[in-house]
Fold this sequence. Notes:
Number of strands of chain A: 10
Oligomer: homodimer
Order of helices and strands of chain A: EEEEHEEEHHEHHEE
Number of domains of chain A: 2
CATH superfamily of the largest domain in chain A: Nucleoside Triphosphate Pyrophosphohydrolase
Shape of chain A: elongated
Number of helices of chain A: 5
Amino acid sequence: MGKKSYYNIVEVLTLIGCQDNGHFQILLKKKKTEPYKGNWIIPGNILSNEETFETVVRNTTYEIAGIIPKKMLQNYVFSDLNRDASERIIASVYTVSVLKNLVHENKDYETGWFDIDNLPIMGYDHKKIVKEVFASLRKQIIYNTDNILKDFFPYDFTLGELQKFWEYIASEEIDRRNFRKKLISQGFVAQTGEEDKRKVGRPSKLYCFTDKLQEGSLK
Amino acid sequence: MGKKSYYNIVEVLTLIGCQDNGHFQILLKKKKTEPYKGNWIIPGNILSNEETFETVVRNTTYEIAGIIPKKMLQNYVFSDLNRDASERIIASVYTVSVLKNLVHENKDYETGWFDIDNLPIMGYDHKKIVKEVFASLRKQIIYNTDNILKDFFPYDFTLGELQKFWEYIASEEIDRRNFRKKLISQGFVAQTGEEDKRKVGRPSKLYCFTDKLQEGSLK
DNA sequence: TCAAAAGTGTTTTGCCTACACCCATGA
DNA sequence: TCATGGGTGTAGGCAAAACACTTTTGA
């Protein structure tokens, strides 16, 4: 144990999330050194006294995903005394949503996408952090806080994709006709006129979110 | 400007809130020394490396209100570089709900209750913090996140009181009959059998929240 | 022609809304 | 008896829920 002090180490962890085939995935980084060598961790950096949290989130996201995020969400701050074996490190967690296909391979780090319900072995308390943060994120998606749904579907999408993601997040099935009816009748989505022919079967029309979405939620 | 360092000063601010006659009020402390002498501030303490945020919130609440809080809510962390003139201080803000009549006068500090929409002159960026935190708190009350409504009405209350608070928070008027009907038909409240005869007019029946409240919201 | 996924309409149900009069009490 | 706030019921509209068949495409 060190001496009592009013100076604190603070790390900023960035949960880089995406929607992939209706699943919620996060981008993790493999730890190259001890402790927890070979385990996966949430990307992050230590905060200096000359940076805000937001600066660090931007840097981390660029470093790991090659993307400068336009928007970020502060999730929670963990201050447990035993988070790290040596000295207490405060962790401030942020979430950033990215389009998976804009993220290129990273040369400096070994990174990987993981389904939120199929996480690998993770270092420190990071698995607990991911689970807690995702629990609150779920609610935010369900109630569309800060228009967060749009971050996962910023451009066009099929109603099937959206429904699949929605059912995954809300853990409930919904009738396809009712789902579509609601979105369309409430004016949350608009047709783009394009079609998606990538899948087998009848091509699906593409939709995008309208500004009206921010006043409502799919719940 | 000091030198770049990875050590940070962190303060934990505790918004002690209550419901009074349908209004949301917070307990502030008058600053006795420069800077901002005579201005009001959110109570708080500097975090040491041997404490968690929760410990500090507990201590601050006891120090200011004489109460050990059972529950607290982490609201937001501010890391702007210019929050304080001398050096950057990170502020982590928590909310605690108390019953106003359990808070006794404080001998060590000058404290006062203020309506959230009638705040006094406040020091630092505390007024901005209060406003931002309250904005998110409002949503939490409206959607009853973490069963927060119950924290403001932990024991029995009249439906009139509750409606007044609700209309204040939601900034919308609601028909008395419909309000009562919803609460009762959804099973969110139950009669205690007691009556409140403190006011003039017909005595009002007292109700308390049921466990069912946590599954729903008044919205 | 078959498999796979997309698209569509109607009926029922329950909740939210609007709305006005009587009741119990203390002054 | 009056002023003050508390308590109650009904009808209409609208959105959610339940429910099954047809269409388009590529293989």
